[in-house]
Amino acid sequence: MSLFRLTLRNVLHRRFLSLLTVCAVAITVAFIVLLTLSRESVEQGAKKGYGPFDLVIGAAGSETQLVLNTFYHIGAPTGNIPLAVLDQAKQDKSVDQAFAMTTGDNFKGFPIVGMDSGYFFTRYGDSKLQEGVMYTRTGETIVGAYVAESLGLKVGDTFSGAHGLVQEQAHESAEAEHGENHGSGEHDEEHDEEHAHESFHYTVAGILPELHTPDDRAVFTTVDYAWAVHELAPEDREITAVLVKPASLLGAHDLKQALDGNNGVQAAYTSKAVSDVLNAVDQGSRLLSVLTAICVLLAGIAILLSLIAAVGERTKDVGLLRLLGKSRVYVWLTLTSEGLLVTAAGLIFGLLLGHLGAYLLKDALFAQAGIQIEPYHWTPEHWLIVAGALSIGLLSSLGPAFRMYRMHPLSLFKS
């Protein structure tokens, strides 16, 4: 009987214990694979999330909140700033490109973002739309590929937006259902605002191609959409942020110094705010790394216990093999190959399970944070996972195998 057939027969003889060991290895490998893919996706998504815009200008507050809302469409804006800030940024010689952004409304949970159409050509080059044309008039929109797919939007469709975040609207509805009293003036103001949004209709002029950035899950329109919805006079018009592509890093520094802290305006380095977010993610990853190490230890113990049980069951079988002339090396290989076979089976199932988990979570992760996880991506760390898993299987096998290797065949048979 060949070594492989003997090893396979021994594994199948203890089906339940072998299955538990395979599951322990598979769950550990799947957890590590999912963690690896998620961490890489977060890092890559964060780096390419803001494109060439190294500086962002917005209302005073949290720099991280400003950057996340502007580029990743997460959370609420820090506030509004005067429209004159845009003119000041465009007139600065150290600025290559500057684009105004207005936001604060949503359509079925997806943010409606007012943005100059030049933003797309500056950030993505001359990439064509998937369908339709770029917006040119107030009320025309182009929608991200993820939004169009999720909501089934097509060119020519019309819709009405809603003010603020969906969570805020749900909270207000809950308060109304519980009969909380509001002043008549406040009630009328909220009613007028809701009516203004419902009466203003958007038309889908085009659909963006898959950009693999947070812009895939946003609805874009002209900057003046918010002014049109609320019928604001020219002197009352404000913007949410200014996205700046500086001509040089020194120019970005000078513009930041000129604007930061003046009249409730802040200028933030995009890369610094993103680095702060990644540092927070890294701290969470360290905690997960500890849990991963515990899982790896438990998987190694499971393999060790499985082989110890195998040694106890097959003592006489091994003694008989030795009396029939099989060498100590053959006996040693039967046990180590069993450990490697169980580990390899768990490794294969773990890799498949980890990538399946990434596939199932990719939409949820993208919907919440705009991070695109690649479930079919094979990273260099995968090779480390394979080598590490097989090494743990081999090391766990050495103890029981060495114990059988040292014993005399007669003592093995008599025991």
Automatic annotation (TrEMBL):
The complex is composed of two ATP-binding proteins (HrtA), two transmembrane proteins (HrtB) and a solute-binding protein. The chain crosses the membrane at residues 16-37, 287-308, 329-353, 383-405. Belongs to the ABC-4 integral membrane protein family. HrtB subfamily. Coiled coil: none annotated. It comes from Paenibacillus tianjinensis. Residues 290-409 form the ABC3 transporter permease C-terminal domain. It is found in: Cell membrane. Residues 170-196 are annotated as: Disordered. The keyword Magnesium does not apply. The keyword Ribonucleoprotein does not apply. InterPro entries: ABC-4/HrtB_transporter, ABC3_permease_C. Keywords: Cell membrane, Membrane, Transmembrane, Transmembrane helix. Part of the ABC transporter complex hrt involved in hemin import. Responsible for the translocation of the substrate across the membrane. It is a multi-pass membrane protein. It holds the Pfam family FtsX. The lineage of its organism: Bacteria, Bacillati, Bacillota, Bacilli, Bacillales. PANTHER family: ABC TRANSPORTER PERMEASE, ABC TRANSPORTER, MEMBRANE PROTEIN. This is Putative hemin transport system permease protein HrtB.
